[in-house]
Amino acid sequence: MGGTVNPLRVGVVGAGTISAQYSACLQRLPQLRVTAVSDLSAERAGALAAEHEGARVLELPQLMAADDVDVVLNLTLPRTHAEIALQALAAGKHVYGEKPLAMDVAEGRGVVEAAAAAGLRVGCAPDTVLGTGVQTARAVVDAGEIGVPHSATAFMTTPGHERWHHFPDFYYQPGGGPLLDMGPYYITSLVHLLGPVERVVGVSWRPSPTRTIGRGPRAGESFEVTTDSSTAGILVHASGAVSTLVMSFDTWAARLPRIEVHGTGGSLSVPDPNLFDGTVEVYSAASAPEPGPGADHEANWRDAGVRAGYLDAGRGYGLADLAVALGEGRAHRASDEVALHVLDVMESVQRAAATRGSVELTTTCERPEAIASPVDLTAAAVGA
Hints:
Rossmann fold; 9 helices; nine-stranded mixed β-sheet; Dihydrodipicolinate Reductase, domain 2; alpha/beta
C-alpha cells in the first residue's frame, strides 16, 4: 500500500463536533485532500475549511456539483445520512459517511442499490475495526491460535450519557438507545472476526422512566425515557459461531471485557472497538495450568503484540482505505455492504425483542479483507 498516490478530493458535508476528529486525520493522510466544506453554519464551515489549504466554503448544491470533489464525506445527523448520500451519488460522487448508513434497512438498501447502479463507492463508519486492535485480533483468529472459533461475548455497559452530555435526550428516544448508538462498533467487529450473521434473538428493557442531566446549561433537568435503555441479543453467525451482545445505559460499574472470542483451542480478549488500538490478549488451551486450587489462569493470558492493521489510525482511515481500494481495483473494507448488514442486525434484534421471537436477517455480506500486517498509510508519496 505504499508507492505514489493521487489524492481523492473530498467535499465535507457537516462541520459539527465529529468533524474535528476527521479533520485531524485527513490533514496527515496523503490519499485525501479536502477541497470544499458545507454546513448550515457558515462560521463552522469556514473554521473547518481554514484547516485545509485551498479548501473553500460552498452551499450544498454547489459542493455536489463541484468538479474538484470526488467523494462526499457525510458528517450530518443520522436522519439525513441517506438523503445526502443519494444526492452525492446522483451527482456522480463517491460517498463516505458516519454511522449508521441510514435510519433503517429499507432506506439503507436504497443507498446501496443507487451506488451499484451508478458504479460508485459508498463507505461507512465505523472504521475503528481497521486499526491495530481488531485487525490484530483477527490475525490471531485467522492463524488458528484459538482453534475453531465457536462463540463470542460483547459488552458495552455504562450508567448513561446524561451524566456528561449536555443534550442527551436523543439517546433515550426512538432511533436512539445503546444498541443503535454503540452497536455498530461491536457488531462490525464481530463481523470482521466471525463473519456475517444469519439469525438473532433479542430482549430489551428500560429500568428508569426518566433521566436527569448532570452537566451543562440544563443540569438538574429531567426528561422522559421513551425507548429501551438496555438490549441483549444472541447473534447466530453463518459460520455456526454464536455471539452474545449486551448494550446498556443502565449499568453503574462492570468488570466485563469489551469483546472476547472463544475457540476450541483457546480464548481471545479484544480491546475497546470504539478505539483503533489497544492490547490484544490470547489464552492458549495448550499452556493452560492444571486444574485445581491455586491454578493461575491469569498468568496464561499473553499479549499478542501488534500484528496487523493501520498504525496510529483515527476517524477517516476508512475513507483513505476507500481511496487506496479505488487505485488498486479492490473492494474497500468499511463498505456499504457491511454497514447495511450491521444495520440489519440491529434492526432485527429490536424486532426480535418486540415480538419475543427469532428473526432471520434479510442481508448478508462478505467478511472484509484483512489488513494482514501493520500498515502506515501516512507513508505514501503524493503524485502530481
